């Protein structure tokens, strides 16, 4: 990690605090306007998914590398089912959930590593 901006564990009670810290850290890294809003929303989706579907410990780390802001959200849950990762379209309006990964992929550069020992969601934004 070139320039560490944030690193902490979180739970359901700290989701709002985490969103605030992500916003401030992303602003300090140089994101602004719609790029900032998109990145914060993508990270928020990943954090809430970790709380909803993952198990502790859940962590978030954000750092800066040349030209890019990176945020990684981790949990020790059961992993993400393949059908959720393979969706090209969001879930229908009648489905409960199923839009978070789709949305993250449209708001940031998304990479997911998942398995029976947990999940790591990495979101990147250009610092042009």
Automatic annotation (TrEMBL):
Keyword Phosphoprotein: no
Alphabetized InterPro entries for the sequence: Anti-sigma-factor_SerPK, HATPase_C_sf, HATPase_dom
Domain of life, source organism: Bacteria
Domain Histidine kinase/HSP90-like ATPase, chain residue ranges per copy: 11-124
Ranges in a coiled coil: none
Gene3D superfamilies: Histidine kinase-like ATPase, C-terminal domain
Keywords assigned by UniProt, alphabetized: Kinase, Serine/threonine-protein kinase, Transferase
UniProt keyword Transferase present: yes
PANTHER family, sorted: ANTI-SIGMA-F FACTOR RSBW, ANTI-SIGMA-F FACTOR RSBW-RELATED
Name used for this protein in its record: Histidine kinase/HSP90-like ATPase domain-containing protein
Species whose genome carries this gene: Microbispora corallina
């Amino acid at each position: 990690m070139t320039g560490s901006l944030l690193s902490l564990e979180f739970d359901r009670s700290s989701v709002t605090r985490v969103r605030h810290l992500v916003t401030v850290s992303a602003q300090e890294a140089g994101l602004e306007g719609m790029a900032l809003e998109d990145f914060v929303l993508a990270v928020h989706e990943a954090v809430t998914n970790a709380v909803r579907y993952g198990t502790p410990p859940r962590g978030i780390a954000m750092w800066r590398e040349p030209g890019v802001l990176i945020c990684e959200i981790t949990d020790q849950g059961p992993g993400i089912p393949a059908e959720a990762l393979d969706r090209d379209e969001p879930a229908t309006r009648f489905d409960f959930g199923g839009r978070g990964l789709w949305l993250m992929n449209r708001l940031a550069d998304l990479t997911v590593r998942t398995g029976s020992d947990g999940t790591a969601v990495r979101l990147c934004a250009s610092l042009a």
